[in-house]
């Protein structure tokens, strides 16, 4: 018979090793005992699996602790009569063996488990022909961890878990608990503090905010890599990205201004992106997050698609529909920080488990959030596993990694004395750098078709170079410098642009140091910055003309392309995450013309190898004239791999130039393929007569051949060479 003080510990929820007490046990004499803690039970007896009574359990504690002998040992069930007179037959969770296999325990402890999501979290499983859910959570410093949910009245005393000390994981199989059940973990710290209930870090589904429980969900099966014609990690392929915040792309005002669900988004967003000619959608974070206003950049569910748009199966269908339409899907992924909400990762087991303990390392001043402890193998494993999970289990084509600069530097946004140097006395976060490299290497090995993109705003070297060559291993890097310089130029009155010509040309000095994406992202249309259209100077016509010219320059410039939703039709007001885009603006010809321009720029870009096949090689670009500051005109040629050539001429003043001579690298006919001043787009319809120019042996700008063209006002024109 069990000692009374041990019984008291179980009943008070203070026993840290429940399997040493509950369930079947044999004493020194070989007698089999069964012990169960069932609050609310009036009587309990042991039943055979195939029927028959095998003994009654005696009440040892009024809170519901029962103990008794088991005749003949073996498997059994519990027949329970409750105080309200009802009865039920239960499987005893404490008669089942370990949830984790020995190899899983080893790999988790080592921090080298490629797919920790397969064994941690909540997974519907069958043990000994009994259906239920296996729960497992990493909390090595806890005194006790319990699974709580609707199935046990959220009572942490009822289902305490077993600790696998080799890896710090608590585990328990709960019979009868299936998909759809809400649950959390109740954690008792070693100091005796009962922590706020914790959501599952590995949850595959969560409740819709403001509710915060995790939801049991089946493990998604692996998805084969998409059969898109050209994968984004082919550096010589076209890549034009439509960045989308799903909660505000479109809403249903007639239905309470609600979000679209995954299937509605598949029916509307996917064909729209396809029609507009974008190769990929990039979704602002869809990982579960508690606060709408974070746009997903303060995530707590690194394995759970947000419940705002439906369940995980719906997200998977969305990706499938995109692939069927020939559109890839990229996700914003946030391993740089996480919010300090009490139900989340912060102080998870009563200690700083996921975050650095010292706030000089572990707290983000800018975002009031916590920084992952990249020095812990289990934390790196958690994050790398998350990256692979989205790629393998939902078939997404790549990840854009947010706030990389904040991970790379220990002094990021900190004053002197507010940060801790690395072991060499430097400012680089060596643990974070190691984590980034490992993430990219794992993705390269396990999902070779996928890409990773760095939002990195500093001059950190070789961000988009392979790790074996000393780089961080990303495929692409956002060109934040190009975005800043060119937007600053475009915001100036044309009369002043001649004095700032270098803002448009400086990017070509370093354009081939990295594999750049040119981003006009959500960050440029929020926080008082206004819309892209609103940044443009001049009257209404000039604002549209400036923006059209800018888009033309961007699509002609070396580098892949990214534009945020609404910018393609010149949204007039600043983006608001709580409201739909202003689609009614398309009833205005200026906005409709802008949308037609972006569609045609994408089509021209994707059909013209000169504009994409040598994006990251200096010999794919040739300046014709970069120093005509007085007229604010730029001209250059893009070269394809097979001799294709595209001449781009951009005029950033509202002056028409007739008979404007441009040197060209080859004799032949130069056909006007796109003119942003076309009346079709809302322009003045100025252009080169007959839409083409034949070269002449008239030396100009260092070339033996030249052409005479009409340069429209505030416009960019593309000319394709034919022999």
From TrEMBL:
<dbReference type="InterPro" id="IPR006407">
    <property type="entry name" value="GlgB"/>
</dbReference>
<keyword id="KW-0320">Glycogen biosynthesis</keyword>
<keyword id="KW-0119">Carbohydrate metabolism</keyword>
<keyword id="KW-0321">Glycogen metabolism</keyword>
<dbReference type="InterPro" id="IPR006048">
    <property type="entry name" value="A-amylase/branching_C"/>
</dbReference>
<dbReference type="InterPro" id="IPR013783">
    <property type="entry name" value="Ig-like_fold"/>
</dbReference>
<comment type="pathway">
    <text>Glycan biosynthesis; glycogen biosynthesis.</text>
</comment>
<comment type="subunit">
    <text>Monomer.</text>
</comment>
<protein>
    <recommendedName>
        <fullName>1,4-alpha-glucan branching enzyme GlgB</fullName>
        <ecNumber>2.4.1.18</ecNumber>
    </recommendedName>
</protein>
<dbReference type="InterPro" id="IPR054169">
    <property type="entry name" value="GlgB_N"/>
</dbReference>
<dbReference type="InterPro" id="IPR017853">
    <property type="entry name" value="GH"/>
</dbReference>
<dbReference type="Pfam" id="PF22019">
    <property type="entry name" value="GlgB_N"/>
</dbReference>
<keyword id="KW-0328">Glycosyltransferase</keyword>
<dbReference type="InterPro" id="IPR006047">
    <property type="entry name" value="GH13_cat_dom"/>
</dbReference>
<feature type="active site" description="Nucleophile">
    <location>
        <position position="402"/>
    </location>
</feature>
<dbReference type="InterPro" id="IPR037439">
    <property type="entry name" value="Branching_enzy"/>
</dbReference>
<dbReference type="InterPro" id="IPR013780">
    <property type="entry name" value="Glyco_hydro_b"/>
</dbReference>
<feature type="active site" description="Proton donor">
    <location>
        <position position="455"/>
    </location>
</feature>
<dbReference type="InterPro" id="IPR004193">
    <property type="entry name" value="Glyco_hydro_13_N"/>
</dbReference>
<dbReference type="Pfam" id="PF02922">
    <property type="entry name" value="CBM_48"/>
</dbReference>
<dbReference type="Pfam" id="PF02806">
    <property type="entry name" value="Alpha-amylase_C"/>
</dbReference>
<dbReference type="InterPro" id="IPR044143">
    <property type="entry name" value="GlgB_N_E_set_prok"/>
</dbReference>
<comment type="similarity">
    <text>Belongs to the glycosyl hydrolase 13 family. GlgB subfamily.</text>
</comment>
<dbReference type="InterPro" id="IPR014756">
    <property type="entry name" value="Ig_E-set"/>
</dbReference>
<feature type="domain" description="Glycosyl hydrolase family 13 catalytic">
    <location>
        <begin position="243"/>
        <end position="603"/>
    </location>
</feature>
<keyword id="KW-0808">Transferase</keyword>
<comment type="function">
    <text>Catalyzes the formation of the alpha-1,6-glucosidic linkages in glycogen by scission of a 1,4-alpha-linked oligosaccharide from growing alpha-1,4-glucan chains and the subsequent attachment of the oligosaccharide to the alpha-1,6 position.</text>
</comment>
